Protein backbone atom coordinates (compact mmCIF):
# COMPACT_ATOMS: atom_id res chain seq x y z
CA UNK A 1 0.00 0.00 0.00
CA UNK A 2 1.37 3.43 -0.88
CA UNK A 3 1.78 6.06 1.81
CA UNK A 4 -1.25 8.36 1.96
CA UNK A 5 -0.84 12.09 2.13
CA UNK A 6 -2.93 14.66 4.00
CA UNK A 7 -2.78 18.29 2.87
CA UNK A 8 -3.07 20.43 5.99
CA UNK A 9 -4.55 23.91 5.48
CA UNK A 10 -4.91 25.49 8.90
CA UNK A 11 -5.97 28.98 7.77
CA UNK A 12 -6.84 31.87 10.05
CA UNK A 13 -8.14 32.71 13.50
CA UNK A 14 -8.32 29.62 15.70
CA UNK A 15 -7.51 27.42 12.64
CA UNK A 16 -3.79 26.92 13.43
CA UNK A 17 -4.46 26.16 17.13
CA UNK A 18 -7.13 23.54 16.56
CA UNK A 19 -5.40 21.93 13.56
CA UNK A 20 -2.21 21.60 15.64
CA UNK A 21 -4.13 19.37 18.08
CA UNK A 22 -5.47 17.21 15.23
CA UNK A 23 -1.90 16.79 13.94
CA UNK A 24 -0.79 15.55 17.36
CA UNK A 25 -3.55 12.96 17.06
CA UNK A 26 -2.24 11.90 13.62
CA UNK A 27 1.22 11.39 15.16
CA UNK A 28 -0.18 9.43 18.08
CA UNK A 29 -1.99 7.02 15.72
CA UNK A 30 1.33 5.99 14.10
CA UNK A 31 -0.23 5.33 10.70
CA UNK A 32 1.51 5.13 7.34
CA UNK A 33 0.42 8.69 6.56
CA UNK A 34 2.33 11.88 5.75
CA UNK A 35 1.14 15.45 6.23
CA UNK A 36 2.14 18.60 4.39
CA UNK A 37 1.05 22.11 5.34
CA UNK A 38 0.23 25.10 3.14
CA UNK A 39 -1.23 28.56 3.65
CA UNK A 40 -4.87 29.33 2.89
CA UNK A 41 -7.32 32.18 3.47
CA UNK A 42 -6.14 35.43 5.00
CA UNK A 43 -2.77 33.88 5.92
CA UNK A 44 -2.21 33.08 2.23
CA UNK A 45 -3.40 36.51 1.18
CA UNK A 46 -0.86 38.11 3.51
CA UNK A 47 1.98 35.98 2.10
CA UNK A 48 1.02 35.68 -1.60
CA UNK A 49 -1.75 38.22 -2.24
CA UNK A 50 -4.34 35.47 -2.87
CA UNK A 51 -6.47 33.36 -0.48
CA UNK A 52 -5.95 30.20 -2.56
CA UNK A 53 -2.48 30.38 -4.12
CA UNK A 54 -1.50 27.89 -6.89
CA UNK A 55 0.93 26.08 -4.52
CA UNK A 56 -1.87 25.43 -2.04
CA UNK A 57 -4.29 24.26 -4.71
CA UNK A 58 -1.64 21.97 -6.22
CA UNK A 59 -0.98 20.38 -2.82
CA UNK A 60 -4.73 19.88 -2.22
CA UNK A 61 -5.01 18.20 -5.63
CA UNK A 62 -2.17 15.69 -5.18
CA UNK A 63 -3.08 14.81 -1.58
CA UNK A 64 -5.50 11.99 -0.72
CA UNK A 65 -7.44 14.28 1.60
CA UNK A 66 -7.43 17.83 2.91
CA UNK A 67 -7.64 18.73 6.59
CA UNK A 68 -8.90 22.30 6.73
CA UNK A 69 -9.06 24.60 9.77
CA UNK A 70 -11.01 27.79 9.15
CA UNK A 71 -10.59 31.02 7.22
CA UNK A 72 -11.57 34.63 7.68
CA UNK A 73 -10.94 37.60 9.87
CA UNK A 74 -12.52 41.04 10.20
CA UNK A 75 -9.38 42.66 8.88
CA UNK A 76 -10.06 41.27 5.37
CA UNK A 77 -13.66 42.54 5.16
CA UNK A 78 -12.72 45.49 2.98
CA UNK A 79 -10.99 43.42 0.27
CA UNK A 80 -12.74 42.91 -3.05
CA UNK A 81 -14.78 39.70 -3.00
CA UNK A 82 -12.41 37.46 -5.03
CA UNK A 83 -9.56 38.13 -2.58
CA UNK A 84 -11.48 37.48 0.62
CA UNK A 85 -10.43 34.46 2.71
CA UNK A 86 -13.84 32.76 2.28
CA UNK A 87 -13.20 32.48 -1.46
CA UNK A 88 -10.55 29.85 -0.71
CA UNK A 89 -13.08 27.29 0.47
CA UNK A 90 -15.42 27.97 -2.46
CA UNK A 91 -12.45 27.64 -4.83
CA UNK A 92 -11.36 24.35 -3.23
CA UNK A 93 -14.88 22.90 -3.45
CA UNK A 94 -15.06 23.77 -7.13
CA UNK A 95 -11.51 22.76 -8.10
CA UNK A 96 -11.68 19.46 -6.21
CA UNK A 97 -15.19 18.63 -7.46
CA UNK A 98 -16.58 18.26 -3.93
CA UNK A 99 -20.32 17.65 -4.26
CA UNK A 100 -21.37 15.83 -1.08
CA UNK A 101 -21.36 17.54 2.28
CA UNK A 102 -21.59 15.18 5.26
CA UNK A 103 -22.49 16.64 8.63
CA UNK A 104 -22.98 14.29 11.55
CA UNK A 105 -25.01 15.60 14.47
CA UNK A 106 -24.05 13.65 17.56
CA UNK A 107 -25.22 14.46 21.05
CA UNK A 108 -22.74 13.11 23.57
CA UNK A 109 -24.44 11.95 26.76
CA UNK A 110 -22.41 14.36 28.92
CA UNK A 111 -23.39 17.38 26.82
CA UNK A 112 -27.16 17.00 26.53
CA UNK A 113 -27.69 20.06 28.74
CA UNK A 114 -26.26 22.28 26.00
CA UNK A 115 -28.86 21.17 23.45
CA UNK A 116 -31.78 23.38 22.45
CA UNK A 117 -34.05 20.40 23.19
CA UNK A 118 -34.95 18.43 26.30
CA UNK A 119 -32.26 15.90 27.26
CA UNK A 120 -34.54 12.88 26.69
CA UNK A 121 -35.11 13.95 23.07
CA UNK A 122 -31.40 14.19 22.22
CA UNK A 123 -29.55 11.83 24.57
CA UNK A 124 -27.70 9.40 22.32
CA UNK A 125 -28.60 11.29 19.14
CA UNK A 126 -26.38 10.19 16.25
CA UNK A 127 -27.61 11.24 12.82
CA UNK A 128 -25.88 12.12 9.56
CA UNK A 129 -27.10 14.82 7.19
CA UNK A 130 -25.87 14.63 3.61
CA UNK A 131 -26.29 17.81 1.59
CA UNK A 132 -25.79 18.08 -2.18
CA UNK A 133 -23.42 20.98 -2.88
CA UNK A 134 -23.31 21.76 -6.59
CA UNK A 135 -26.88 22.05 -7.87
CA UNK A 136 -30.29 23.36 -6.85
CA UNK A 137 -31.51 26.94 -6.74
CA UNK A 138 -28.05 28.20 -5.70
CA UNK A 139 -26.51 27.67 -9.14
CA UNK A 140 -29.39 27.19 -11.64
CA UNK A 141 -29.54 29.56 -14.60
CA UNK A 142 -31.11 31.90 -15.49
CA UNK A 143 -31.08 34.10 -12.45
CA UNK A 144 -31.11 37.82 -11.99
CA UNK A 145 -33.26 40.91 -11.85
CA UNK A 146 -35.30 42.62 -14.52
CA UNK A 147 -38.04 45.16 -14.94
CA UNK A 148 -41.44 43.71 -14.14
CA UNK A 149 -42.90 42.43 -17.46
CA UNK A 150 -46.31 44.02 -16.93
CA UNK A 151 -44.79 47.40 -16.15
CA UNK A 152 -47.49 47.81 -13.51
CA UNK A 153 -45.34 49.98 -11.29
CA UNK A 154 -42.99 52.50 -12.77
CA UNK A 155 -39.42 51.35 -12.11
CA UNK A 156 -40.55 48.12 -10.43
CA UNK A 157 -38.20 45.15 -10.71
CA UNK A 158 -38.47 41.43 -10.13
CA UNK A 159 -35.80 38.97 -9.12
CA UNK A 160 -35.67 35.27 -10.00
CA UNK A 161 -33.59 32.12 -9.46
CA UNK A 162 -33.83 28.75 -11.16
CA UNK A 163 -34.12 25.51 -9.21
CA UNK A 164 -32.49 22.75 -11.23
CA UNK A 165 -31.09 19.25 -10.77
CA UNK A 166 -29.70 16.88 -13.39
CA UNK A 167 -30.00 13.10 -13.21
CA UNK A 168 -26.22 12.53 -12.75
CA UNK A 169 -26.13 15.06 -9.91
CA UNK A 170 -28.92 13.28 -8.05
CA UNK A 171 -27.56 9.82 -8.79
CA UNK A 172 -24.09 10.51 -7.42
CA UNK A 173 -25.34 12.05 -4.16
CA UNK A 174 -27.83 9.20 -3.78
CA UNK A 175 -25.00 6.66 -4.10
CA UNK A 176 -23.00 8.47 -1.40
CA UNK A 177 -26.05 8.45 0.86
CA UNK A 178 -26.94 4.79 0.34
CA UNK A 179 -23.32 3.75 0.93
CA UNK A 180 -23.19 5.86 4.12
CA UNK A 181 -26.48 4.32 5.31
CA UNK A 182 -25.10 0.87 4.56
CA UNK A 183 -22.14 1.60 6.88
CA UNK A 184 -24.53 2.64 9.67
CA UNK A 185 -28.05 1.47 10.47
CA UNK A 186 -29.22 0.90 6.87
CA UNK A 187 -31.92 3.57 7.02
CA UNK A 188 -32.05 6.54 4.65
CA UNK A 189 -34.54 9.39 4.55
CA UNK A 190 -34.65 11.47 1.37
CA UNK A 191 -36.00 14.96 1.99
CA UNK A 192 -37.81 16.78 -0.83
CA UNK A 193 -40.73 19.03 -1.68
CA UNK A 194 -42.16 16.77 -4.37
CA UNK A 195 -45.72 17.92 -3.68
CA UNK A 196 -44.92 21.42 -4.97
CA UNK A 197 -41.67 21.39 -6.96
CA UNK A 198 -40.99 19.56 -10.24
CA UNK A 199 -37.25 19.57 -9.40
CA UNK A 200 -37.90 17.60 -6.23
CA UNK A 201 -40.43 15.21 -7.78
CA UNK A 202 -37.55 14.35 -10.12
CA UNK A 203 -35.19 14.10 -7.12
CA UNK A 204 -37.59 11.65 -5.46
CA UNK A 205 -37.94 9.56 -8.66
CA UNK A 206 -34.17 9.30 -9.21
CA UNK A 207 -33.39 8.47 -5.55
CA UNK A 208 -36.06 5.74 -5.75
CA UNK A 209 -34.41 4.32 -8.90
CA UNK A 210 -30.96 4.26 -7.27
CA UNK A 211 -32.50 2.46 -4.27
CA UNK A 212 -32.86 -0.65 -6.47
CA UNK A 213 -29.08 -1.12 -6.13
CA UNK A 214 -29.28 -1.03 -2.33
CA UNK A 215 -32.10 -3.42 -1.38
CA UNK A 216 -30.60 -3.88 2.11
CA UNK A 217 -31.18 -0.18 2.92
CA UNK A 218 -34.64 1.05 3.94
CA UNK A 219 -35.57 4.23 2.10
CA UNK A 220 -38.30 6.67 3.02
CA UNK A 221 -39.25 10.10 1.71
CA UNK A 222 -40.23 13.14 3.73
CA UNK A 223 -41.32 16.62 2.71
CA UNK A 224 -38.89 19.24 3.94
CA UNK A 225 -41.42 21.05 6.12
CA UNK A 226 -42.24 17.80 7.89
CA UNK A 227 -38.51 16.95 8.18
CA UNK A 228 -37.83 20.31 9.83
CA UNK A 229 -40.59 19.57 12.32
CA UNK A 230 -39.52 15.97 13.04
CA UNK A 231 -35.92 17.12 13.63
CA UNK A 232 -37.04 19.02 16.72
CA UNK A 233 -39.92 16.72 17.67
CA UNK A 234 -38.19 13.34 17.40
CA UNK A 235 -34.65 13.74 16.05
CA UNK A 236 -33.69 10.21 17.01
CA UNK A 237 -36.25 8.88 14.50
CA UNK A 238 -33.66 9.63 11.77
CA UNK A 239 -30.43 7.91 10.84
CA UNK A 240 -29.09 9.24 7.51
CA UNK A 241 -30.83 12.15 5.75
CA UNK A 242 -30.03 13.07 2.13
CA UNK A 243 -31.30 16.26 0.56
CA UNK A 244 -30.59 19.05 -1.92
CA UNK A 245 -28.38 22.08 -1.53
CA UNK A 246 -30.86 24.56 -0.05
CA UNK A 247 -32.85 22.21 2.20
CA UNK A 248 -29.54 20.73 3.37
CA UNK A 249 -28.16 24.15 4.20
CA UNK A 250 -31.11 24.83 6.47
CA UNK A 251 -31.60 21.39 8.01
CA UNK A 252 -27.91 20.91 8.84
CA UNK A 253 -27.87 24.15 10.84
CA UNK A 254 -31.07 23.08 12.58
CA UNK A 255 -29.46 19.73 13.43
CA UNK A 256 -26.34 21.50 14.72
CA UNK A 257 -28.42 23.21 17.40
CA UNK A 258 -29.73 19.85 18.60
CA UNK A 259 -26.22 18.94 19.70
CA UNK A 260 -25.69 22.18 21.54
CA UNK A 261 -22.11 22.93 20.73
CA UNK A 262 -20.59 24.30 17.57
CA UNK A 263 -17.17 23.35 18.89
CA UNK A 264 -18.03 19.62 18.58
CA UNK A 265 -19.30 19.37 14.99
CA UNK A 266 -17.14 17.97 12.19
CA UNK A 267 -17.92 17.96 8.48
CA UNK A 268 -16.73 16.34 5.27
CA UNK A 269 -17.07 17.34 1.63
CA UNK A 270 -16.45 14.48 -0.81
CA UNK A 271 -15.77 14.05 -4.50
CA UNK A 272 -16.75 11.01 -6.59
CA UNK A 273 -13.49 9.12 -5.97
CA UNK A 274 -13.49 9.18 -2.18
CA UNK A 275 -11.19 12.14 -1.83
CA UNK A 276 -12.45 14.84 0.48
CA UNK A 277 -11.98 18.01 2.43
CA UNK A 278 -12.60 17.81 6.17
CA UNK A 279 -13.22 20.78 8.43
CA UNK A 280 -14.99 21.77 11.63
CA UNK A 281 -18.49 23.16 11.01
CA UNK A 282 -17.62 26.33 12.90
CA UNK A 283 -15.69 29.32 11.55
CA UNK A 284 -12.38 30.97 12.40
CA UNK A 285 -13.73 32.53 15.62
CA UNK A 286 -11.43 35.59 15.54
CA UNK A 287 -12.95 36.70 18.87
CA UNK A 288 -11.11 33.90 20.70
CA UNK A 289 -8.11 33.31 18.40
CA UNK A 290 -4.63 32.94 19.89
CA UNK A 291 -5.88 32.50 23.46
CA UNK A 292 -5.73 28.72 23.79
CA UNK A 293 -9.45 28.50 24.62
CA UNK A 294 -10.95 27.12 21.35
CA UNK A 295 -12.39 23.61 21.39
CA UNK A 296 -10.28 21.39 19.10
CA UNK A 297 -12.70 18.43 19.15
CA UNK A 298 -14.65 19.38 15.99
CA UNK A 299 -11.35 19.36 14.11
CA UNK A 300 -10.20 16.12 15.72
CA UNK A 301 -13.57 14.53 14.82
CA UNK A 302 -13.14 15.87 11.27
CA UNK A 303 -9.82 14.03 11.19
CA UNK A 304 -11.69 10.86 12.21
CA UNK A 305 -14.04 11.34 9.23
CA UNK A 306 -11.00 11.88 6.98
CA UNK A 307 -9.49 8.60 8.14
CA UNK A 308 -12.79 6.78 7.57
CA UNK A 309 -13.94 8.20 4.23
CA UNK A 310 -10.71 9.07 2.38
CA UNK A 311 -7.90 7.00 3.86
CA UNK A 312 -9.68 3.71 4.49
CA UNK A 313 -8.54 3.66 8.09
CA UNK A 314 -11.91 2.92 9.71
CA UNK A 315 -10.18 1.37 12.73
CA UNK A 316 -8.15 4.51 13.38
CA UNK A 317 -11.30 6.63 12.92
CA UNK A 318 -13.13 4.54 15.52
CA UNK A 319 -10.19 4.88 17.91
CA UNK A 320 -10.21 8.67 17.59
CA UNK A 321 -13.97 8.87 18.16
CA UNK A 322 -13.72 6.55 21.15
CA UNK A 323 -10.93 8.73 22.58
CA UNK A 324 -13.15 11.83 22.26
CA UNK A 325 -16.00 10.04 24.04
CA UNK A 326 -13.59 9.01 26.77
CA UNK A 327 -12.24 12.52 27.42
CA UNK A 328 -15.80 13.87 27.62
CA UNK A 329 -16.80 11.07 29.97
CA UNK A 330 -13.83 11.83 32.20
CA UNK A 331 -14.95 15.44 32.52
CA UNK A 332 -12.59 17.36 30.22
CA UNK A 333 -14.31 20.54 29.01
CA UNK A 334 -13.19 23.53 26.98
CA UNK A 335 -15.00 26.78 27.83
CA UNK A 336 -17.67 26.37 25.11
CA UNK A 337 -18.90 23.05 26.56
CA UNK A 338 -18.26 23.63 30.25
CA UNK A 339 -21.44 23.78 32.31
CA UNK A 340 -21.81 26.24 35.15
CA UNK A 341 -19.42 25.26 37.91
CA UNK A 342 -17.32 23.06 35.60
CA UNK A 343 -13.66 23.97 35.23
CA UNK A 344 -12.60 24.76 31.65
CA UNK A 345 -9.33 23.58 30.14
CA UNK A 346 -7.45 25.04 27.17
CA UNK A 347 -7.09 23.94 23.55
CA UNK A 348 -3.74 22.27 24.08
CA UNK A 349 -4.74 20.54 27.30
CA UNK A 350 -7.76 19.09 25.49
CA UNK A 351 -5.37 17.86 22.80
CA UNK A 352 -3.20 16.29 25.54
CA UNK A 353 -6.26 14.48 26.91
CA UNK A 354 -7.23 13.02 23.52
CA UNK A 355 -3.65 11.89 22.84
CA UNK A 356 -3.50 10.32 26.30
CA UNK A 357 -6.82 8.52 25.72
CA UNK A 358 -5.43 7.09 22.48
P1 LIG B 1 -18.23 31.76 9.71
O1 LIG B 1 -18.86 32.84 8.93
O2 LIG B 1 -16.82 31.43 9.30
O3 LIG B 1 -19.10 30.57 9.86
P2 LIG B 1 -19.15 32.82 12.15
O4 LIG B 1 -18.91 34.25 12.48
O5 LIG B 1 -20.47 32.36 11.69
O6 LIG B 1 -18.02 32.36 11.16
P3 LIG B 1 -17.72 31.19 14.11
O7 LIG B 1 -16.38 31.66 13.69
O8 LIG B 1 -18.02 29.76 13.96
O9 LIG B 1 -18.89 31.98 13.43
O10 LIG B 1 -17.96 31.63 15.62
C1 LIG B 1 -19.25 31.77 16.19
C2 LIG B 1 -19.11 31.80 17.71
O11 LIG B 1 -18.78 30.49 18.17
C3 LIG B 1 -18.00 32.72 18.19
O12 LIG B 1 -18.37 33.37 19.36
C4 LIG B 1 -16.84 31.79 18.44
O13 LIG B 1 -15.98 32.24 19.43
C5 LIG B 1 -17.54 30.50 18.84
N1 LIG B 1 -16.77 29.33 18.39
C6 LIG B 1 -16.60 28.92 17.13
N2 LIG B 1 -15.81 27.84 17.07
C7 LIG B 1 -15.43 27.57 18.34
C8 LIG B 1 -14.59 26.57 18.95
N3 LIG B 1 -13.95 25.63 18.23
N4 LIG B 1 -14.45 26.59 20.28
C9 LIG B 1 -15.07 27.51 21.02
N5 LIG B 1 -15.88 28.48 20.53
C10 LIG B 1 -16.06 28.52 19.21
MG1 LIG C 1 -21.29 31.17 10.10
UniProtKB/TrEMBL annotation:
Belongs to the isocitrate and isopropylmalate dehydrogenases family. LeuB type 1 subfamily. It is an enzyme of class 1 (oxidoreductase). Residues 5-354 form the Isopropylmalate dehydrogenase-like domain. Binds 1 Mg(2+) or Mn(2+) ion per subunit. Pfam families: Iso_dh. One of its GO terms (molecular function) is NAD binding. Its main location: cytoplasm. Its EC number is 1.1.1.85. Homodimer. It comes from Piscinibacter koreensis. Catalyzes the oxidation of 3-carboxy-2-hydroxy-4-methylpentanoate (3-isopropylmalate) to 3-carboxy-4-methyl-2-oxopentanoate. The product decarboxylates to 4-methyl-2 oxopentanoate. HAMAP family: LeuB_type1. This is 3-isopropylmalate dehydrogenase. Mg(2+) binds at residues 225, 249, 253. Its cofactor is Mn(2+); Mg(2+).
Amino acid sequence: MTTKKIAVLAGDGIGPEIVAQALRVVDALELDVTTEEALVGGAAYDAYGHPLPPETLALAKVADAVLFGAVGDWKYDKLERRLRPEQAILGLRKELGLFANLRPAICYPELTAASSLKPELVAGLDILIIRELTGDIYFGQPRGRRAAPDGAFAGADEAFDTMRYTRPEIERIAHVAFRAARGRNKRLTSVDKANVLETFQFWKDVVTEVHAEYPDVTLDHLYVDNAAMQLVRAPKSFDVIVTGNMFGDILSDEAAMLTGSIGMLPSASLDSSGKGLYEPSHGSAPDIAGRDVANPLATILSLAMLLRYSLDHADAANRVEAAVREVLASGHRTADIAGSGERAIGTRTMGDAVVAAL
